[in-house]
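ok so heres the complex, three chains, lmk if somethin looks off
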Amino acid sequence: MVRKPSHVDDAGAGNGGAESNKERKGLWSPEEDERLFTQITYHGVSTWSSVAQLAGLRRSGKSCRLRWMNYLRPDLKKEPITKREEELIVSLQRSLGNRWSTIAARMPGRTDNEIKNYWNSRIRKRLNAAAKQAEVAAGTEPPPPPPPAAEKKVVEVEPVNNGGTEAGPMPIPARFPVFECQLVDAGGGGGESTPSTTTTSTQQNSGDDSEASVGESNMIHFLSFDDLDYPAGDFLVDLPGAMDAWESELYPANSTSSLY
DNA sequence: AAGACACGCAACCGCAAACAA
DNA sequence: ATTGTTTGCGGTTGCGTGTCT
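and the predicted structre for the whole thing:
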């Protein structure tokens, strides 16, 4: 569902007025999205407050960062969370606790906000319901809650480096089917903030045959799939025992209920 | 048909860590 | 060492939409 921007008329900059210096809040308009996307695509990020300024947005740097991270970033998956991903969320939540950003780091294309929302709106309810059901069935006190994640041994699983970047592969969203983009030669991935070469090209995004990534320089560069080592399945990790425990909790042996 | 309710998502808020001056 | 700024995170809220009564 897409909410209508709260102030569609005064989106972006350049329309002056007494409110022109007032920071905007609320939903982002398409024009603001475009300004932010273009700014970051062409010039990268030095500080988020400067991004807002340079893009001519009356938004806080914080707001710009959030919008980019949760919505505009080219690597975001737009498909619904799959059962496999849900299983991963549950197992990671069990071992890490509510460290959504850490969990998101292990799930390419998913944001902490998305995972958090998914957890709060769906999984937690199901787990609670399942626990209650088990409690009623047993007629006993519920089992003691698991110790806080901080006290548990945290199983650190290194995210798979599948694009030579911190963020991993970034499929270009269909939201921006065609746009101009500055190709940045990151100088062998050395994190140089000054691109050695740049090329402007037009990307036709099918979402299937190209990817982009944000390098250490925060500049976006687009890669062909052939350039990427995308180990299907490798970035989905299981924590030993976690899934079994979850499934037995969620799916009592005599129940045929499904998550879906 | 209309109101109530539940759900899902986007975005804000407050805090703490990291960093720079 | 101190202070101010920026960034990142998790919790929470507000609102649009779908479903139920």
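quick notes: Residues 57 and 118 of chain A are 30 Å apart (CA to CA). thats all i got rn
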